[in-house]
Amino acid sequence: MLPPPVLERIGADVPSWRGTGVSAMELSHRGAAFREIAEKTQADFRALLRIPDHYRILFLAGGATLQFAALPLNLLGAKRTISFFDTGAWSKKAIMEARKYAAVEIVASSASSGYTTIPPREHWRIAANTAYAHYTANETIDGVEFPFIPDVGSVPLVSDMSSTLLSRPIDVERFGLIYAGAQKNLGIAGLSIVIVREDLLDRARADTPTVLNYAVQAQQGSMANTPPTFAWYVLGLVLEWLRDQGGVVEIEKRNMSKALKLYEFIDSSDLFANAVEKSVRSRMNVPFRLTEPLESDFLSESVAAGLLNLKGHRSVGGMRASIYNAMPEAGVEALISFMKDFEQRGG
Ligand SMILES: Cc1ncc(COP(=O)(O)O)c(C=O)c1O
């Protein structure tokens, strides 16, 4: 969900951006008005996440899946191997795409646990001479989140933070590159953000499509082609909202509190269960199952109670509560009280 104040602003700006008579959807990416939005959004993003100057921030068209292909094209350089942590559905998709361009070595896999764990450090294997090591910070489908930044030594660390970015502070300097699709905590679909250390911008393959070439996009202010201007504008509003909430430090506290409440209830219940190992449970996506065959009743009654989008991802089934930044604590409390009531009624 988007924060309600952001939706209100969009509502006013769609017919006429700041009273100009021009819709926020009609702003030309080369015009002064959009340039102002773009530069402010870039500066706010850098400030909120304390991104050092030697990292470039790119605002690119397309989702994280497009970056699965752009990453090897840009970062493999003269090397042949990429290292991947395999911790869930999105890791698997990133691995499949990278295999088209490089040899993939698995650092560690939690497949044997049904993707409910993160393998401990002593089981990791970083291949010699690997171009970079990739991990999915939060597995949106499986509900598994790294509670730490993996230490991969001097190998550039790359992270898919599609469902993590802006939900907590991060030490950007630990990374070579961070990327995320926007439609979770950053706004709406159509935009992805790439935060890339400048020294990694010199290794793109010659046949990398121009719009996917990070060095070209960095040099041209993310405007090598027409960027998704409306999604970029919405991100700007989301960043203003987040700053007003107290930034990533404050939002992390709220996210921890929301997640804790929901997991505490699920663990105390006989009807609902979450299979993920406690220390790696996601703060953003809480998958759960019913121990009795009442899932379709639960889903239809939850919709009637105004609790939406609780159906788990089609690949795994079950239920999933996504509790991104804009979900207020009251929304989680409403879900818990609905679940309690459902359990007490015997489904
Ligand atoms: C962690 C993660 N990576 C990648 C993706 C793919 O994003 P997109 O569908 O925008 O390409 C998603 C989408 O939900 C995701 O959650």
Helix and strand content put the structural class at alpha/beta
- Measured as a percent range, the helix fraction is 25-40%
Count of spatially separate domains:
2
Give the helices and strands as they follow along the chain.
HHEHEHEEEEEEEHHHEEHEH
CA distance, first residue to last residue: 27 Å
Would you identify the regions where 5 or more consecutive residues have pLDDT less than 50? none
Please specify the SSE layout and strand pairing.
Blueprint: H1 4-13, H2 32-48, E1 55-61, H3 64-75, E2 81-86, H4 89-98, E3 103-109, E4 130-136, E5 138-139, E6 144-145, E7 157-160, E8 177-181, E9 191-197, H5 214-219, H6 229-245, H7 247-268, E10 272-273, E11 285-290, H8 295-304, E12 319-322, H9 329-344
Bound molecules: pyridoxal-5'-phosphate.
Pyridoxal-5'-phosphate binds at residues 63-65, 90, 136, 140, 160, 162-163, 181.
Give structural notes.
With 347 residues, this protein is of the alpha/beta class. The protein folds into 2 domains: 230 residues, Type I PLP-dependent aspartate aminotransferase-like (Major domain) (Aspartate Aminotransferase, domain 2, 3-Layer(aba) Sandwich); 98 residues, Alpha-Beta Complex (Aspartate Aminotransferase, domain 1). The chain has 9 helices and 12 strands. Helix 4 links the parallel strand 2 and strand 3. The structure holds pyridoxal-5'-phosphate.
